[in-house]
Amino acid sequence: MTLLIISPDYASHLLPLATLGTAWRDAGERVVVATGEATASIVESFGFERAHLQLGRGSNPGIIKAEDQPKGEDDALRGFFAATRLGMVETLAFQADARKNDLLWDPVNTARAVQRVVDEVRPDRVIVDHLAFSARLALLAHGTPYADVVLGHPSALPVGGEVYGFPPSWPAAFDPDDAALAALRALCDDVSASFTAEWNAALDGLGASHLHSASAFAEHGDLLLYNYPGELHERARTALLPAHEFIGSAVRSEPVDAEVEEWLAASDEPFVYVSFGSFLSVRGDVLARVLAALAGLGLRVAVATGSADRAELGELPGDWLVRGFLPQVRLLLRATAAVNHCGNNSVTEAMTHGVPLLVLPFSTDQFAGAAALEREGFGVSLAPNTATVDELRDGLERVLALPRARLDALSASLLETPGRERAHRRLG
Fold first, then answer.
1. What is the mean pLDDT of residues 89-112?
2. Same-domain check for residues 301 and 163
3. How far apart are CA 110 and CA 264, in angstroms?
4. Which of 153, 166, 167, 380 could be a cystine partner for 188, CB 3.0 to 4.6 Å?
5. How high is the pLDDT of residue 56?
6. Separation CA 55–CA 314 (nearest Å)
7. Is 170 strand, coil or helix?
8. Same domain for 364 and 347?
9. Residue 207 lies in a domain
10. Is the dihedral of CA 13, 16, 20, 22 positive or negative?
């Protein structure tokens, strides 16, 4: 049997998808990953074959910087970073407007490249990142069944009266103006209509006009695999979902890091793990306030600074572990609490190890994810642009005081049946 995994050239997307593939690999099956050159080393580290496939202009091997991106993509990334400094609505509006150009990159030619990969690999099962729209378009036109992996809050696939890009719920710390929200909703509706027109035009170019969609953002695979714990999802919304499986989390194995092991062995004192991921670590101003709040609590800290300017963070305690990149899964195994941007990998990996969260959402589905954590009592959310050092310190103290019973039960469930096993059991 052959499993084909199709992923954008982004480490944060490929790592969970590749982790799912290890269930097939360990069962002695062939696994082929179709992705770009930037993440080739990740594919190799899992022991998979790689088929070259470029699904977009940009790439991210682990830490993303605007200056490392191709012309055009670099300015788009700088624009996004600038929008995050303005606020929630401004960021979501920037992202909505950008979707007019970046979700279907050269769709017909890209789709044909995907179809060539499928014809060459001849897979028995196909797993695709939900955000790889050109790949899913290709498979639809090709008549190839596939499982659709939603890496993010489930609202990445809108249902009911939702529209893509407009969060169905908000954390308590955010109180956007009604008029601004109405304008954002209108923009998202407009983008959804234009995206659907572009999707259908690409189907025309592929000779599949009979497959035209009324709402391209609502299109999905034969089976949805949500990389998200079902325990965090509202029951009323679950009832609206197409055929699906909540796989919980795709927690990867990481190589032993001698420096990290030495730091962990040096003390049994509790510590907090901090990371804003590969994109949003550029917000060194927010990271600096978080670290100042932690310094005031007297806790040990492990912080992945990513692309933040180290000088912006100031002088940090000598017993902290400070590096550009850290093995997140290993540290969450021991952390008492964590601070992050509410990205999908960060949340699901923290939940797997029962780590309560202080989240500072910046964009996309992070707001809905933060609202879910608050609702279930697994975390506290604050606004990254306005939270003061004192408010961050208070938020951290509230996180450390959260009740443990339900979080521990969720962790036990996710550890008992990992996401890769749930996916393999459902797909076979």
1. 89
2. no
3. 46
4. 166
5. 82
6. 39
7. coil
8. yes
9. yes
10. positive
Question: Residue 320 sits in which domain range?
Answer: 258-416
**What was the pLDDT predicted at 86?**
94
pLDDT at 384: 97
Q: Is the pLDDT score of 20 beyond 70?
A: yes
Half-sphere exposure of residue 411, counting CA atoms within 13 Å on the CB side?
16
Q: How do residues 213-255 score in pLDDT, each as one tens digit?
A: 999 999 999 999 999 999 999 999 999 999 999 999 999 889 9
- What is the pLDDT at residue 15? 94
* Number of folded domains that form the chain: 2
165 and 35 co-located in one domain:
yes
DSSP category for residue 253: P
195-200 long-range CB contacts below 8 Å, 24 or more apart? Answer: 195/99, 195/100, 195/103, 195/104, 195/164, 198/104, 198/107, 199/104, 199/107, 199/133, 199/137
60, β-bridge pairs: 10
Residues 222 and 262 in one domain: no
User: What is the pLDDT confidence band of residue 99, given thresholds at 50, 70 and 90?
Assistant: confident
271: domain CATH number?
A: 3.40.50.2000
Does the pTM of the predicted model rise above 0.90? yes
Half-sphere exposure of 405 (CA within 13 A, CB side): 0
The answer to whether residue 95 is domain-embedded is: no
C-alpha distances (whole Å) from 251 to each of 178, 180, 208, 402 are 39, 38, 38, 24
pLDDT tens string 111-164: 999 999 999 999 999 999 999 999 999 999 999 999 999 998 999 999 999 999
280 domain residue, yes or no: yes
Same-domain status, 214 and 328: no
Q: Residue length, the chain?
A: 428
Contact indicator for 9, 147 with CB cutoff of 8 Å: no
Q: Within this chain, do residues 293 and 222 fall inside the same structural domain, yes or no? A: no
Distance CA 242, CA 244 (A): 6
pLDDT for residue 37: 92
Q: Identify the burial level of 79 via C-beta atoms within 10 angstroms of its C-beta, where 0-12 means exposed, 13-18 middle and 19 or more buried.
A: middle
Residue whose structure tokens are 């959804």: 192
Give, to the nearest 10 degrees, the angle between helix 405-416 and helix 344-352.
Answer: 100
Asked if 165 and 147 sit in the same domain, the reply is yes
Mark whether 18 and 56 lie in a shared domain: yes
Strands 147-150 and 223-226: parallel
Q: What is the pLDDT of residue 353?
A: 97
Provide the pLDDT confidence category of residue 291 given band limits of 50, 70 and 90: very high
- Quick one: tokens of 308? 């933040």
Residue 278 within any structural domain of the chain: yes
Going by the DSSP 8-state scheme, the letter that residue 315 receives in this structure is: -
